[in-house]
Amino acid sequence: MSSRKSPMMRLLSGTCLVLVGLLLAFVAVEALVRVATSSQQNYLIEMWRYATLLKRSSADPVVGHEHIPGASASLQGVDVSINSLGMRGPEPDLTTPGKHKVVIIGDSTAMGWGIPESETLRAQIAGYLGPDVEVMTTGVGNMNMTQIVANWLRYSDVIRPDTVIVLATARAPAVQSTEEAGWLVRHSQAYALLVSFVEIAMHNTPGQDGLVTGYETMWSGGPGRVAMDEALDRLKKDQAKYGYRVLLMQVPEPHSFQPYRFQFTTDIMQAESEKRGWTFLDPLPDLQQQPAESYWVANNDVHPNAKAFQVMANVLKPHLDSIREQ
Question: For residue 88, what is the DSSP state?
Answer without folding.
Answer: B
